[in-house]
Amino acid sequence: MYSGWNLVLIITVLCGQSIGFFWPFTAFAATNAVDSGPDADASRRVAIIGAGAGGSSAAYYLQQFAEQSGVELNITVFEKSSYVGGRSTTVNAYDDPLEPVELGASIFVDVNTILKNSSEKFGLKAKRSETESEEVLGIWNGESFVYTQKDSGWQWWDIAKLIWKYGLAPIRTQRLMKSTVGKFQKLYEAPFFPFRSLSDRALDLGLTAVTSMTGEQYLAQNSIGAPFSTEIIQASTRVNYGQNLGVIHGLETMVCMAIEGAMQIDGGNWQIFYGMLNASLSKVLLNSTVRAITKRNGKYNIQTASQDYTGKTSRKEESFDTVILAAPFQYAEIDFEEGLLKHTPDNIPYVTLHVTLFTSPRKLDPTFFNLAPDVEVPTSVLTTLAPDDVPLTPEEGVGKPGFFSISTLRPILNPNTLRKEYLYKVFLPKALTSDFMGGILGIPVPTNLSKISADSGDAISWYYPHVWKSYPYEFPRVTFEDSELAQGFYYTSGMESFISTMETNALMGMNVARLIVDDYLRVIEDDIAKSEKTSQVVLSGEAIQELR
């Protein structure tokens, strides 16, 4: 979760957002990360499906809580991809490992205690900015820039300018954000942690009143309205979640404005989750897809299909005492035995987000943004809607701007031509076209983008598109999926419709880990109590025999 409040950090999510970057893990996790766990015959076996933030955190905290409680666990993590980190992933510009760039979940903040503490424990180096030092932030509504600001990184913003233009709305927003996010942070503490029902906890903390209405309604209820809400806050909800204030619920709106102290791990945030898995002593199986789950004699039987480095597929079935599904249910594509789950999570619509990275020697063209030819375009462009721009559906929410954000991440040296270029990141609701790219650069771009190369001499020298099911449409709601779908079968992605970030998914991983260990301890206590009761009965019987 992002925390604090800083306008310029709206751009943080532009330069890095709630999705990830690709680093090609191969056999490391499967061979080196974790075969040193407890003997499966002497411990309870736990299967975790998914090695993203939720799954990695669940493995990490399972090991910690089990060790503290004297419970022996054997943990296996199944990941269908070739890398860990889920939507936190990186790619290398020009395929150069010295030029990694986040493709997905890119930032976290000081109050994100799970991510921050873990990164420090694993000795990972955090950096405070991915963008140019001389950055200019602009918010564009498809017709004109409604706000611009010079910025020197993620840690500074011009509050005087905001108050001069928008009055007390920025101060009211800051206070509202702190109050709302403060309630959420109680989920980390007893008596609210751990929780089996997120719905009940949200109600207990007074947060269903916030999730039950749109961001627009929640802001208006607290005397925060246009133009600050529609220009500044909506630019943040769009770059963070691809959604406008009339769609996204009030809690996620406040999370978008809680972005102070943003940072990212040098080389990629995926390293946090890699570190969690390594520290958990789990057996991590990459390129391993869970196909089906059945239940026999109280055990969950998991059928998997795995590929080795040659592409050869092998199938296997293993039994586990407990299962954690750490991925959205609707995208897991698992065949569940009928009646296995007490409750099946609802299908919820996810945003389809096209993230495109590219490099070019050209800066953004002012004429595309209706500026004079000699005017400098902001290096980072967020978008909002013009007053007369009213999308008919959430899927059409991008409106006249046609994109959610364009960010100039940093200057970069083309390794083939040795010329200075710029690394860009664009968020759109559909695939980026050569016409659009040519428009923002002010020069024709080859129609066949797949043939672009670093030495082609074209306007684009490197190009990397990716499509994410990045996060749910955060429609107002008051109920959320529970942490346990059946006895011994736990679920982390119910958190996504409440708050969708790396930190909150990691929190849900920690939550189910605590529930599992507590449940095991309860079983152990019950077994001990039964054993003592049986012993007493035996002793009583012996005493009766002696009396006879």
TrEMBL record:
Residues 150-520 form the Prenylcysteine lyase domain. GO terms for molecular function: prenylcysteine oxidase activity. One of its GO terms (biological process) is prenylcysteine catabolic process. The keyword Chloroplast does not apply. It comes from the Eukaryota. It holds the Pfam family NAD_binding_8. The keyword Glycoprotein applies. InterPro entries: FAD/NAD-bd_sf (IPR036188), Prenylcys_lyase (IPR010795), Prenylcysteine_Oxase1 (IPR017046). Keywords: FAD, Flavoprotein, Glycoprotein, Oxidoreductase, Signal. Its cofactor is FAD. PANTHER family: FARNESYLCYSTEINE LYASE, PRENYLCYSTEINE LYASE DOMAIN-CONTAINING PROTEIN. Belongs to the prenylcysteine oxidase family. This is Prenylcysteine lyase domain-containing protein.
